[in-house]
Amino acid sequence: MPTTTPTPPRLMNTIAPEPEHHGRLQDLLDELVRDTAASYGVVFGTHGLHLLRSGDLGQVGAESVTAIMTNVLLLSRGAGKLTARGEAETIVVRYASGALALAPLGDSFGLGLLTGDAEKLAHIAYAIARFTTRAAHLLPPDALSSLGGLLPAPGGAR
Fold this sequence. Notes:
Layout: H1 9-12, H2 22-36, E1 40-45, E2 50-55, H3 59-82, E3 91-95, E4 98-105, E5 109-115, H4 121-135
Helix pairs in contact: 2-4
């Protein structure tokens, strides 16, 4: 009996922000990294490729950390579905000398920040929520469907 293996969700994502929004998204990411004093930040697609990077992170490093961040984000999404807890809002992995903070940006994108100061996680969580609100109108509308109305209308404040 033949069986068909479904395509993993990250391989189905071909959505990308419109080219005219890249500059503004990059500015928002740069501001986020600066305001949180993060080592670096990445906006990535759930297909596993980074779209934007900021801070102390080169091309090869961005590709490596994005592969990890994508899997952590997809793991949290799967755990939320399996346990009927819903979509993760923020995912934090604490280390002895810092933390990795991740947030979904709709179905198709994610945001990741690496900080050397885990004591500032409340500030980072607020900054991530603000980034998400400010970036919402720059991402394709289909990519925002998983947020289920959690984002205010473009131009709203959080």
